[in-house]
């Protein structure tokens, strides 16, 4: 009889915080930049240099902890995790093992299987390592320390997830929460959110966990889902063959859709942790926690309830708009200016989503101002421009944030509402297309559509379509 297996999954999610400077020095945290230009003696681990903690890092960590229902450790400190690796300049990493800043939280996720709370074991602060660049051509590895010392929080879940769907829902919930807080942009492709996945399998009904492996190098939701499926199958195959799963760290190769062993998994004692001697403990007062709590934004779930009451836009639209805080901000600001939530929603849902998809952009990358979108809606509503022209103007707003009034004036795009001029053009079109006219008189309603098209073409798309229809019917 075939056995049934259950997958048990826990995640360690690293999030780069959106501070302007690094965790223990004043170097820039900006992504990109020539290699080794955002560095100083502290973040390159020079002897005698001393770390100074960035207060903003603590506030962001607390904000994420509060938003994920954790309790804040009011007396917490840093520890030194010792390991030797070329991208780790001090030969140790400043992290938190014994007293992490946040503990015992959880977030609610929803999948096709229903709602579920995923526990958060802890959230701790630490510094990022540098980045090794492997040059296949020269057969050397070179190191860039720009990322070294960039502040991270590591969010460690409980092993509460049972499928790839639950993992993706959990990651999306974390990403959305952290983006709403402004604590990180959480771009997986730039490495500002990275997930290591711990997976084990066991027979359904078994009390004991199986041996787990850790999967690294996962930088997209698709890769994470594939890695989980792949690793589940690999472990079941080993068990069925009577072999045992080895506790190790594995690296996922997204192109090959397979993983390979990197190293056997170390335990905490292998890192010789001890309290960081160069940093004083952090004492967090009740007042400070309250202050951070007061600054928490309105989160997505709260926005959805308010949008329903306040704006009367479809549930589906509200879900898409609030998925990105930046898009929600644009929606609210534009609506405030023009007072037409349905119209604003339509522009965001149709044209904005189309252009984002075509350019493979994220909603966070939107650069246009609410003022210009509101003006475009007003021009369209007033009949100053027709819908075809409006789409053309919107593309300019999307790419270059142009002032629509000015653009319409300069390019001469105003709708022609002059009946005399339209009548003359339409008379000419009727004279030029006797066949369509005959078709229309023989009961072919569609023929008028062709004549409308020809008129719009002659008027360079600037005629008022309602007026064109009316005059055509009258003349025919």
Automatic annotation (TrEMBL):
Keyword Signal appears in the UniProt entry: no
SMART domains, alphabetized: GatB_Yqey
EC top class named in words: ligase
One Pfam family this sequence matches: GatB_N
Enzymatic reactions: L-aspartyl-tRNA(Asn) + L-glutamine + ATP + H2O = L-asparaginyl-tRNA(Asn) + L-glutamate + ADP + phosphate + 2 H(+); L-glutamyl-tRNA(Gln) + L-glutamine + ATP + H2O = L-glutaminyl-tRNA(Gln) + L-glutamate + ADP + phosphate + H(+)
Keyword presence, ATP-binding: yes
Gene Ontology BP annotations: glutaminyl-tRNAGln biosynthesis via transamidation; translation
Domain Asn/Gln amidotransferase: 329-476
Similarity comment text for this entry: Belongs to the GatB/GatE family. GatB subfamily.
PANTHER family according to UniProt: GLUTAMYL-TRNA GLN AMIDOTRANSFERASE SUBUNIT B MITOCHONDRIAL AND PROKARYOTIC PET112-RELATED, GLUTAMYL-TRNA(GLN) AMIDOTRANSFERASE SUBUNIT B, MITOCHONDRIAL
Protein name: Aspartyl/glutamyl-tRNA(Asn/Gln) amidotransferase subunit B
């Amino acid at each position: 009889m075939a056995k049934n297996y259950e997958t048990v999954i826990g995640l360690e999610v690293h999030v780069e915080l959106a501070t302007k400077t690094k965790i223990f020095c004043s170097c820039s945290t900006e992504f990109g930049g020539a290699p080794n230009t955002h560095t100083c003696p502290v973040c390159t681990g020079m002897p005698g240099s001393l770390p100074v903690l960035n207060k903003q890092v603590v506030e962001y960590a607390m904000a994420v902890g509060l938003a994920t229902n954790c309790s804040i450790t009011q007396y917490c400190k840093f520890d030194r995790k010792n390991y030797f690796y070329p991208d780790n300049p001090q030969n140790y990493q400043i992290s938190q093992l014994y007293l992490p800043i946040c503990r015992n939280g959880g977030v609610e996720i929803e999948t096709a299987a229903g709602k579920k709370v995923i526990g958060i074991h802890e959230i701790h602060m630490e510094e990022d390592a540098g980045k090794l660049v492997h040059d296949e051509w020269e057969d050397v590895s070179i190191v860039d320390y720009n990322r070294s010392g960039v502040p991270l929080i590591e969010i460690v879940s409980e092993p509460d997830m049972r499928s790839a769907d639950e993992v993706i829902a959990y990651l999306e919930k974390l990403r959305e929460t952290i983006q709403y807080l402004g604590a990180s942009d959480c771009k997986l492709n730039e490495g500002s959110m990275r997930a290591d996945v711990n997976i084990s399998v066991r027979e359904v009904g078994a009390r004991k966990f199986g041996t787990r492996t850790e999967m690294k190098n996962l930088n997209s939701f698709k890769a994470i889902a594939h890695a989980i499926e792949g690793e589940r199958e690999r472990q079941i195959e080993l068990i069925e063959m009577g072999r045992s799963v080895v506790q190790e760290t594995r690296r996922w190769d997204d192109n090959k859709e397979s993983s390979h062993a990197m190293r056997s998994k170390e335990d905490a004692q292998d890192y010789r942790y001890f309290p960081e001697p160069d940093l004083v403990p952090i004492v967090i007062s009740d007042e400070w926690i309250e202050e951070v709590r007061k600054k928490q934004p309105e989160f997505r779930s709260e926005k959805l309830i308010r949008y329903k009451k306040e704006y009367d836009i479809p549930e589906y639209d509200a879900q898409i708009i609030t998925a990105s805080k930046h898009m929600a901000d644009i929606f609210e600001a534009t609506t405030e200016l023009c007072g037409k939530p349905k119209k604003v929603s339509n522009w965001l849902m149709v044209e904005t989503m189309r252009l984002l998809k075509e350019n493979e952009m994220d909603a966070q990358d939107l650069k246009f101002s609410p003022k210009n979108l509101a003006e475009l809606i007003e021009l369209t509503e007033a009949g100053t421009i027709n819908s075809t022209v409006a789409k053309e103007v919107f593309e300019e707003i999307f790419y270059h944030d142009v002032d629509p009034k000015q653009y319409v004036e300069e390019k001469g795009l105003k709708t022609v509402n002059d009946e005399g001029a339209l009548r003359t053009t339409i008379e000419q079109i009727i004279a030029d297309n006797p066949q369509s006219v005959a078709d229309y008189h023989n009961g072919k309603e569609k023929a008028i559509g062709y004549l409308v098209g020809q008129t719009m073409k002659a008027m360079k798309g600037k005629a008022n379509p309602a007026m064109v229809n009316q005059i055509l019917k009258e003349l025919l």
